[in-house]
């Protein structure tokens, strides 16, 4: 399997746990979310709070940051 396909499948799998969809700052476009692991959104972000600390992915990775949709992936991301 090539790396691009592998990452696509991985992102889809992690996005099941991602709670960006219920965040007031979510750009609400058709994106696979999981910005903490795969980088920032292509769209403008209006900061209205970040719910990442409530997310399973954030907790198990011991992430510390917020607003990944705007800033890009967490420095602790291993992907
Ligand atoms: S930590 Fe934030 S960006 Fe990462 S999966 Fe959870 S809600 Fe999505
Ligand atoms: S990364 Fe944080 S601020 Fe951005 S949409 Fe996800 S939960 Fe909201």
Judging from the principal axes of the Cα atoms, what is the shape? globular
What is the helix tally? 4
Compute the average pLDDT: 94
* Number of strand segments: 0
Task: Give a written overview of the molecule.
The chain has 79 residues and is mainly α. The mean pLDDT is 94. The chain has four helices and no strands. The longest helix has 13 residues, at 3-15. The protein binds iron/sulfur cluster (SF4) (2 copies).
Overview features:
79 residues; globular
Show the helix and strand layout.
Blueprint: H1 3-15, H2 35-38, H3 56-60, H4 68-71
Bound molecules: iron/sulfur cluster (SF4) (2 copies).
One iron/sulfur cluster (SF4) binds at residues 20, 23, 25-26, 35, 50-52, 66-69.
Task: Offer a quick outline of the entry.
This protein has 79 residues and is mostly helical. The chain has helices at residues 3-15, 35-38, 56-60, 68-71.
């Amino acid at each position: 399997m090539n790396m691009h396909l592998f990452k696509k499948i991985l992102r889809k799998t992690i996005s099941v746990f991602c709670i960006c969809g219920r965040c007031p700052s979510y750009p609400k476009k058709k994106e696979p979310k999981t910005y903490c692991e795969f980088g920032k959104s292509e769209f403008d972000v209006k900061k209205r709070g970040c719910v990442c600390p409530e997310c399973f992915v954030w907790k198990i990775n011991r992430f510390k940051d917020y607003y990944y949709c705007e800033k890009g992936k967490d420095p602790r991301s291993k992907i």
